[in-house]
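Incident log, structure service

09:12 report received: a user says their structure output differs between two submissions of the same chain.
09:20 pulled the input from the user's history:
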Amino acid sequence: MTTSETIEARLQRLGLTLPVPAAPAANYVPALEIDGQVFVSGQLPMGAEGLQYKGKLGDEVSLEDGRAAARLAALNVLAQLKATLGDLERIRRCLRVVGYVNATPEFGDHPAVINGASDLLADVLGERGHHARAAIGCASLPFNAAVEVEALFAVAPEAERAH
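09:34 re-ran on a clean worker, output below:
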């Protein structure tokens, strides 16, 4: 991403549209900004038609679909971030991503699945999208989602842009 290209312009150039931010499914907030950081709660691969990828990796969900699910979940992370910040240019850096993979006990490619989220963040945010990460296998996820992604971002104060 060039320094003159905004995150919104990059999204448009990549043919990506941020989904409508999902409402919380329980007693929590989707994102919380405090002391120059935004903690984004776990996001599922939600699209215009609802939950797009259900089931277990290593069974009914392919590695390719798992990556696509992680990519869509990361797009939902950005949607929550925009709803919280108002302006994605306030992002200084993605600090950490944690990806949860609904998988069979035999499945071992969790990092390859969560690469879908990491690649999306790098594509959209450029250098600001490089982050620390964990990829964790789970016996189940809410609503039988294939993947869930949460993230932590460093952000500029409201009056300041991150460039």
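09:41 both user submissions now match this output. Likely a transient worker issue. Closing.
09:42 reviewer note: The mean pLDDT is 94. The first helix runs from residue 7 to 13.
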